[in-house]
Amino acid sequence: MSLKLRLKPEEKVLVGKAVIMNGPRTSEFVVENNVPILRQKDIMTEEDANSPSRRVYFAIQLMYIDTEKLVEYHGKYWELVNDILVAAPSTKPYIERISEQILACDYYQALKLTRKLMHYEEELLAHVKSL
């Protein structure tokens, strides 16, 4: 199944392991095979993985783009989510849904669900700060 991508001027996209940067105008292209694709706004750097949920996102991102080290990334993922569950048991519904996608090897959907966990984490921290 093909995927049509429309890139904004100067926008970057990861296709497989290649980073592609668009030129000064909007462009459109079609990816005709099944490869990992992440838009610039969805790519997290290791430096930006500065909270528990963001570290989970980064680990899943690595699973998605670097399948050669899946065992290593899976181990890190389970370690991270166990720590989160101990610290914040209310995250369990989020972790369960993400983990289902991990076990199904649907890393892109797991990334989308992890964004919800990141938002929930921000809400928890805001609530704690307001006390």
Verbal overview:
The protein is of the alpha+beta class and 131 residues long. The protein folds into 2 domains: 3-42, no CATH class; 52-130. It has 4 helices and 5 strands; from the N terminus they run E-E-E-E-E-H-H-H-H. It has helices spanning 52-65, 70-87, 92-103, 107-130, and strands at residues 3-7, 12-15, 18-21, 27-31, 37-39. The strands form 2 sheets. It has a 3-stranded antiparallel β-sheet, with no helix packed on it. A two-stranded antiparallel ribbon has the order 1-4. Helix 1 (52-65) runs antiparallel to helix 2, helix 1 (52-65) packs antiparallel against helix 4 and helix 3 (92-103) runs antiparallel to helix 4 (107-130).
Brief description of this entry?
The chain is α+β, with helices and mostly antiparallel strands and 131 residues long. 52% of the residues lie in helices and 16% in strands. The relative contact order is 0.12.
Brief descriptors of the model:
three-stranded antiparallel β-sheet, two-stranded antiparallel ribbon, 4 helices
Beta strand %: 15-25%
Largest sheet: 3 strands, antiparallel
Domain tally: 2
Distance between the termini: 50 Å
User: What is the typical, i.e. mean, pLDDT?
Assistant: 94
Radius of gyration: 16 Å
Could you say which structural class the secondary elements and strand pairing correspond to? alpha+beta
Q: Which overall shape is indicated by the principal axes computed on the Cα atoms?
A: globular
Quaternary structure: single chain
Strand runs, count: 5
Helical segment tally? 4
Helix and strand element order: EEEEEHHHH
Extract low-pLDDT stretches.
Answer: none
Walk across the major sheet and give the strand order.
3-2-5
- Portion of residues within helices: 40-55%
